[in-house]
Write a structure and sequence with these properties.
This protein has helices spanning 5-21, 42-57, 59-85, 87-116, 129-162, 170-179, 193-200, 207-238, 260-276, 292-311, 314-319, 325-349, 357-362, 372-385, 388-398, 403-407, 411-423, 433-444, 452-474, and strands spanning 120-124, 251-256, 282-285, 288-291. It is mainly α.
Length: 476
């Protein structure tokens, strides 16, 4: 088994872009963010708006042409940069983002998706409220170890089988998205894409573990208690309803594809290696300096992903409904996102001298200190409708972009940005990549899932009040 031609074509296109625009990127440059207007953010806003509305308003066009749409927005960002500031300046900025952040980012997602796709939870159990709560708890804990995407793909089908004889089961999937696809991934860079972006920017691997465990335990615990209360009420109401024949009778649960577990451990080890091992060796690729420990990390992670394809049974992946489509879509869209965000980051780095000075003022108190509560809600609010990884990056830069200062002097601000991006990605189907994947799988299995605004009614009633409490408790 090999990755699809679509992903191969994407990588080839990125290499071609690097070859074309990188020939003159021999010096270290920086875009003049203070001289750039908000019009430079138009491609970024347009791409994110396309991602938000495409699957809902023009589904068939989006499904077949999302890669082309992302490429058009990326070109609308790169070409004007080259015209306005010169090929050398523009190419260095774009290549630096692609080679030092995007490639490591997508390699990790690709590996977690590929390896977790070879792990099959076979068999079935009965979906009582306590069993469901236990599965959600296990999934939330797994999310920080194998990623929200990996945990969601491994556990959503067992969760659906456990509840497929219940007339009321959509709420189970909704809370699965809340906890497993989002909140549970807040404790390590493996958990959720925005935290890995932070890791690539210099945030220590275990920083989120030691600084977000209280917020995660409080928020996730309250959401789980609300689920348990709702599920108990609905389960009792089902007692008087006509019985539905269980399409998947209870059988012994077995975990297949155990050879992939040490491969997941290897991914974690590779990331820890790159954080601890600093040989001080770097290589220049098209004028961009790449550190040896990061190259070794990415090479190990890629090797483990392809090894998973060798050691996994094809039948296990087929039973999981494993396809290359979702990860190919993520790879193409995020390539566009990382390119389009380049001018936005340059403007943000200009701080009070840039076109986004009003946003800087909004998250800054009159004394000049960061307003953590504003960071929490602005990061989270945008992460609800835009992808949470680039949103995290925007507010990371807005808070200064210096990982060492953010982990120490402004630790509460970094915690607010991290919690907002991860937690509130659950507010809509489009806030985080696994959300829509889980939604699509559930609908395919016959679950009557609410639509876009119906889901927001659930998140508004359950999550927003909890986020209000958590915000004032931890960041107020």
């Amino acid at each position: 088994m090999r990755p699809p031609t679509g992903k191969t074509a994407l990588l080839a296109s990125l290499f071609l872009l690097a070859t074309i625009v990188g020939a003159s990127a021999a010096e270290e440059h920086g875009l003049p963010g203070a001289a750039m207007s908000l019009w430079w953010g138009l491609p970024f806003a347009g791409l994110l708006l396309s991602i938000a509305t495409g699957p809902l308003l023009f589904h068939h066009v989006w499904e077949h042409h999302y890669g082309k749409i992302a490429a058009v927005w990326a070109a609308l960002a790169v070409v004007p940069l080259a015209i306005a500031f010169g090929m050398s300046l523009a190419s260095e900025a774009v290549l630096h983002t692609l080679l030092t952040e995007y490639m490591s980012f997508i390699i990790l997602l690709f590996a977690l998706y590929t390896i977790s796709g070879g792990i099959l939870v076979a068999g079935n159990i009965h979906g009582t409220p306590l069993v469901n709560a236990g599965l959600l708890l296990v999934g939330a804990m797994l999310a920080s170890v194998i990623g929200t995407t990996g945990a969601s793909m491994i556990l959503i089908r067992p969760m659906l089988r456990a509840n497929d004889n219940r007339p009321f089961n959509a709420h189970v999937v909704i809370f699965f998205i809340f906890l497993v696809s989002n909140i549970g991934g807040s404790l390590t860079p493996l958990g959720d894409p925005p935290l890995f972006v932070g890791f690539l920017r210099g945030v220590d691997f275990f920083w989120t573990t030691t600084n977000l465990w209280r917020e995660t335990l409080f928020t996730g615990g309250l959401v789980l208690l609300v689920f348990l209360a709702i599920d108990i009420v609905l389960h009792r109401r089902e007692g008087s309803a006509p019985k539905i024949k269980d399409p998947t009778p209870d059988t012994k649960v077995r975990i297949r594809g155990l050879a992939n577990l040490p491969l997941l451990a290897g991914v974690i080890g590779a990331i820890l290696l790159s954080a601890a091992w600093k040989p001080g060796v770097s290589f220049s690729v098209l004028g961009i300096s790449l550190e040896l420990q990061n190259l070794v990390r990415d090479a190990i992670i890629l090797a483990l992903a392809f090894l998973s394809l060798v050691v996994s049974y094809k039948s296990h992946r087929e039973a999981n409904g494993f396809t290359w489509g979702p990860i190919a879509e993520v790879a193409k869209l995020f390539a566009g996102i990382f390119i389009c965000i380049v001018p936005v980051i340059a403007i943000l780095r200009a701080g009070h001298d840039g076109a986004l000075a009003p946003l800087v003022a909004l998250v800054t108190s009159p004394t000049g200190q960061p307003n953590d509560l504003a960071y929490f809600w602005l990061t989270g609010g945008l992460s609800s409708f835009l992808d949470n990884a680039p949103t995290y990056l925007v507010f990371f830069e807005l808070a200064g972009g210096d990982a060492q200062r953010l982990m120490t002097e402004f630790a509460s601000t970094l915690a607010a940005v991290s919690a907002g991006a991860v937690f509130m990605g659950a507010n809509t189907y489009i806030g985080n990549a696994p959300n829509f994947m889980v939604y699509a799988i559930a609908r395919h299995r016959g679950v009557k899932m609410p639509g876009f605004f119906g889901y927001m009614a659930w998140s508004g009633a359950v999550l927003v009040p909890i986020f209000l409490i958590a915000g004032f408790l931890f960041f107020g």
